[in-house]
Design brief:
Blueprint: H1 5-17, H2 19-35, H3 44-51, H4 56-63, E1 69-74, H5 89-99, E2 103-109, H6 115-118, H7 127-142, E3 149-153, H8 159-169, E4 175-177, H9 189-200, H10 206-216, H11 228-238, H12 254-269, H13 280-283, H14 286-298, H15 305-315, H16 322-329, H17 346-352, H18 354-364, E5 373-374, E6 377-378, E7 385-390, E8 393-398, E9 422-427, E10 430-435, E11 445-453, H19 456-464, E12 472-476, H20 492-501, E13 506-510, E14 523-528, E15 545-549, E16 554-558, H21 561-566, H22 587-592
């Protein structure tokens, strides 16, 4: 199938830009494969340590040269709802591996923190850095050279990107990502948001707020809004690292377990010892990355992936840019409306036709590359189907011909919007990104005086004091990766939403992040260069006239350009924000981390 011209042009640009780095990556992948991943490459002492705790049958298998060993990298913990279901997965995977004639071992665990728990707390300063910690922790687990393939158990914000970076670093190994699925639908997300705003206005108390939050986040599984966690799952499927239709099956169901068993057996079927060798480094190439970008845009996915996808691609020797994303966004139609871009949650999306319907629509309309390699085989045809568990057998059936709910999931010929809603903003303040799929047209242009804060608490205090009574653009700076680790500023959403509802023109400009579920208030985020690097955002003063035009893709200081350029760069003593809750351990990360548009990574 032929892709549209813009899709091809962006892909070709990535190929040219990445020629040298991709070649180096693939050469290293081939060298790693040639060196071997079999137990025979280990000394007897090495091997004895590696299977000392195994049962007799597994030990006998691993003592030979032919048995396949599957490494499990798990982000299990039972505090986080999305990862709690993983408690039982290793046993399921081990049994499925034995049925396939192989062995499975937990190679290592990685941390999994939840931005929902740490929002507005000190621990949030570790959130972005946890991605690279996860990549390193997974690498430690796989470094024992005991494994022919790996499965990765992870769901949420930084966990999946970190695991992908590690999987691509060990790109000679086949890798399959196994999700746990979303929790069942609870309190509607718009009702939860309404209660949050009432609480900010003092119209309900903490008891009412906690009740609403508890009814929304109420059981095992991923949060049901379309933030970074569920964007991760969409990406893993459309990029070919999941089994078809695996992303949004609820935990604790027979279908969920059947998919986990099938993923295990498939991982063992595509090793270098067989005839279907499918290493992760070949699954992820420029075409699969572009497919992921298209999927992100077509679903109104998380802004966090403007950084994560850059870092993930870089791990495979591929160079993508915010400009690539913005060019694609101009042509990729919005086909899904899931909260905060609509009232539905991911369960409604899945019921309406889900990933199979979405992928078929995008592929058939020329927005996806079909000539890709996936863990399930060549091409995307299998990914236009959805799994069924009938009479204790996993089968795949074509996705429905029509959407089960056209208000949630629509066809490519009748999109909710003609563009994906992710824009690159440029101008004399630097570069930033904005997600406008949930921003009403009348709120996409804001020209107003700046109100400068050096923390989200400062804006909240001004809101509570009744100081924010006229149009303004909030500038929250010294929130970038080098400054304090680039926390999400989710606590700003209710206050800014209230002010906008009151008829005040508001916008946010920050070198920090906003939640993957950020919505109706225009927010220019990930500003680079950041204030701590002396970026222009560090020269903005209270009262400066700023203009944010999301449609035109501009963000500018309006005033005397020479006077602005001559201003001294503001500084901030951040010492207190570098200690406590483990933040002192990440001093090296703050020194090494790159700019947001390069993935905010310590690796490149």
């Amino acid at each position: 199938m032929t892709v549209k011209t813009t899709i091809k042009d962006v892909t070709d640009a990535i190929t040219r830009r990445s020629e040298a780095s991709r070649r180096t990556y693939l050469d290293r992948l081939d060298k790693a494969r040639a060196q071997g991943v079999y137990r025979s490459a280990l000394s007897c002492g090495n091997l004895a340590h590696g299977f000392a705790a195994c049962g007799p049958s597994d030990k006998a298998q691993l003592a030979g040269d032919q048995a396949l060993n599957l490494g499990i990298i798990t982000a299990y913990n039972d505090m986080l709802s999305a990862h709690q279901p993983y408690e039982t997965y290793p046993a399921i995977i081990r049994e499925a591996a034995r049925e396939a004639g192989g062995v499975a071992q937990v190679a290592g665990g990685v941390p999994a923190m939840c931005d929902g728990v740490t929002q507005g707390q000190l621990g949030m300063d570790l959130s972005l850095f946890s991605r690279d910690v996860i990549a390193m922790a997974a690498a430690v687990g796989l470094s024992h050279n005991m494994f022919d393939a790996a499965v990765f158990l992870g769901i949420c914000d930084k966990i999946v990107p970190g695991l992908v970076i590690s999987a691509l670093t060990f790109g000679h190994l086949p890798a399959i990502f196994i999700p746990a699925g979303p929790m069942t639908t609870g309190l509607p997300n718009d009702e939860k948001a309404r209660v949050r705003q009432l609480y900010m206005e003092g119209k309900v108390g903490r008891d009412e707020l906690l009740e609403a939050e508890s009814r929304s986040y109420h059981g095992p599984g991923t949060c049901t809004f379309y933030g970074t966690a569920n964007s991760n799952q969409m990406l893993m499927e459309i990029m070919g690292l999941h089994l078809p239709g695996a992303s949004f099956v609820n935990p604790g169901t027979p279908l969920r377990d059947a998919l986990t068993k099938a993923a295990t057996k498939r991982a063992l079927a595509i090793t270098a010892q067989g005839n279907q060798y499918t290493p992760a480094g070949h699954v992820i190439d420029e075409k699969s990355i572009v497919n992921g970008l298209v999927g992100l845009l077509a679903t109104g996915g998380s802004t966090n992936h403007t950084m994560h996808l850059v870092a993930m691609a870089n791990a495979a020797g591929l160079k993508i840019t915010w400009e690539d994303m913005s060019v694609l966004s101009d042509v990729v139609p919005l086909l899904a409306r899931v909260y905060p871009n609509g009232l539905a949650d991911v369960n409604h999306f899945h019921a309406a036709g889900g990933m199979g319907f979405l992928i078929r629509e995008l592929r058939d309309a020329g927005y996806l590359h079909d000539d890709v390699t996936t863990v399930w085989g060549k091409g995307l045809d299998a990914y236009t189907k959805e799994p069924r568990y009938i009479e204790e057998e996993l089968t795949f059936e074509p996705a429905p011909a029509q959407s089960g709910n056209p208000k949630v999931l629509t066809v490519a010929s009748e999109p909710f919007a003609k563009s994906g809603g992710l824009k690159l903003l440029s101008g004399n303040l630097g570069k930033s990104v904005i997600k406008i799929s949930a921003v009403k047209a009348e709120n996409r242009l804001v020209q107003a005086p700046a109100r400068v804060f050096h923390s989200q608490q400062g804006l909240q205090d001004a809101f509570k004091a009744g100081e924010l009574t006229s149009d303004f653009i909030a500038v929250i700076r010294f929130q970038g990766p080098r400054a304090i680790g680039m926390p999400e500023l989710h606590k700003l959403t209710p206050a800014l939403g209230i002010l906008q509802d009151r008829g005040i023109k508001v916008a946010l400009v920050t070198d920090g992040r906003m939640s993957g579920a950020s919505g109706k208030v225009p927010a220019a985020i990930h500003m680079t260069p950041e204030a701590a690097d002396g970026g222009p955002i560090a020269k903005v003063r209270d009262g400066d006239l700023l203009r944010l035009d999301a449609e035109m893709g501009t963000l500018e200081f309006l005033g005397d350009a020479e006077e602005f350029a001559s201003r001294p760069v503001a500084t901030e003593d951040l010492t207190d924000q570098h200690y406590g809750m483990g933040r002192e351990l990440f001093a090296g990360f703050r020194q090494l981390v790159g700019a947001a548009d390069r993935g905010a990574s310590v690796f490149a």
